[in-house]
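seq as requested:
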Amino acid sequence: MISRRRILGSLAAMSIIPSRVYAQSPIEIRDSLAKRFADDGTTGVFAAYSTEGYSTVASDRSRLGQAILPASTFKIPNSTIALEIGVVTDPDKDVFKWDGVARNFPDWNRDHTLRTAIAASAVPVYQEIARRIGTDRMKAFVDKLDYGNHDIGGAPIDYFWLRGNLRVSPLQQIEFIDRLRRGVLPVSQRTQDLVRDILPVTKVGNSVIRSKSGLIGVDDKSPAGGVSATVGWLVGWVENGRARTVFALNLDIREQRHIASRMKLAQQLLSDIGAT
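struct tokens:
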């Protein structure tokens, strides 16, 4: 009898693993993972998908399915669309000139390439990218990429992922990120190679974490330090030898220190499940 794991392994090798396998797979809830958030004085959710075991572990079942604004994690699909349609042709050579408006995030107040903009999470650069893409092409590609609830309404084209109707759950984040990781998004391989390459990298021992953060409530008019943030995201994947683990985390920003807690907790939780 052919096992489900063998079938999925064959599909993965052919890059046609079903996009809904994550929702169909059993999810193991571990209370010990939720305790990490409580010990840090907040609440949140962490989920991780093992590409070897085709299994998902999570800290909380109810919050796992709750869809919220993606905030700056949308810079991943935004970069993908920009590169695919030629709004950005080279992530290291195309320059977005600073508009001269001094904002409360010093790293935003300079010229940027796509690579430096995603590293600095420079909202004004990605707002300009969104304007260049335009509403019609943005909608078409958000649908094509099957991202979140597909709804780019409720706010101007350069604000919908910050204040509009777009919503995405942790499981949807994992599903989208894993398609990018495997190179099976419905865009060119070049585009996917470049987006994977520009994602910020954090090294933990022998492991590499490629990830993107986001803060709901923070935009180009936010006060210094992001104190207006209400929820923080971190999504990405871990490379540990041949093993790959795709993850999504979000937490309530109750204190300023919880902004840094996103990466701190992610590293702890990934270690807890043996991903690093």
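The beta strands are 27-29, 44-50, 55-58, 201-204, 207-216, 231-240, 243-252.
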